[in-house]
Every structure is written in C-alpha cells, then in structure tokens.
Amino acid sequence: MKCLKCGYNQSKVVDSRHADDLNAIRRRRECEQCGTRFTTFERIELSPLIVVKKDGTREAFNRDKVLHGLVRACEKRPVAYDDLERIANEVEYQLRESSQTEVSSVDIGELVMEQLMGLDQVSYVRFASVYKEFKDIDQLLSTMQGMLSDKNKK
C-alpha cells in the first residue's frame, strides 16, 4: 500500500479485524518510511453492478457514493457513522441479492430513503430533497405531509 503522506509503497500491518459482518477485513497499516498510520479494507471482489442514471448513462455501482450521500444528509444530526455504514451495506446487499446486473439510480435512492426514514426523519427529508429534486416548497411540504400521515396511521 502506498502511504498517503509520503508516497512510499511499503507498509506493515499493525492490526487486522473483521468488518462489515465478516464481509471485509479492516487493516491498520503503518508506513515503514515516515510512520504514518492509515486504514485499508479488503473485500471480496464481486461481479460488476451497473447503475443506470436518470439521464440514461451507465456507471459502475460505487458504495462510497451511497455512503457519501448519507453522510451529507446526516450532517449535524445525531446519527452514528456506523448506522450509515450499515445502511450502505444493506443497500448494496439488497441490490446484489436481486441478481440484476443493471439497476436504476431511482431504485438505489428508494432503498436509501426507506432505510433513512426509520433512522432519522430530518436526514430523510434532506436526502429526499436532493434525490427527488424538489423544485419548490410545495413539493417539500407534500412529502412532509405524507410522512406525518404515515406516522399518524401507526
């Protein structure tokens, strides 16, 4: 592994642990030149999953993009990073379990919103406002009223 600080390509493993429910190994490494410590993850390489975006373009599924979107939606909210990791893992698991090689970005967004709704409603609204591309306050209010009516039914 190449050191992030000095670029040296020799490091030693200081600690290894299982991660992501035994689907990955988390390795703590130390650069042999400058002593900087960093973390790497080793995962099983899976068959490619292609995302079909709203404009019709295609790109490889990137779990980190899902996680980044979750982090942005949950900024300054009392949501643990481990919960966001769990959601990203669950979304990827569900997509891969569907046995489809192509999945729409709409489906990914729906899965994320479904998970966020049960975790933090403010983060859900933040994510939905970007994902659904609200054009005005009426669309936002409509979504929030739907949430309130669903909550009152329970």
UniProtKB/TrEMBL annotation:
InterPro entries: ATP-cone_dom, NrdR-like_N, RNR_NrdR-like. The keyword Transcription applies. One of its GO terms (molecular function) is ATP binding. One of its GO terms (biological process) is negative regulation of DNA-templated transcription. Residues 49-139 form the ATP-cone domain. Keywords: ATP-binding, DNA-binding, Metal-binding, Nucleotide-binding, Repressor, Transcription, Transcription regulation, Zinc, Zinc-finger. Belongs to the NrdR family. This is Transcriptional repressor NrdR. The lineage of its organism: Bacteria, Bacillati, Bacillota, Bacilli, Bacillales.
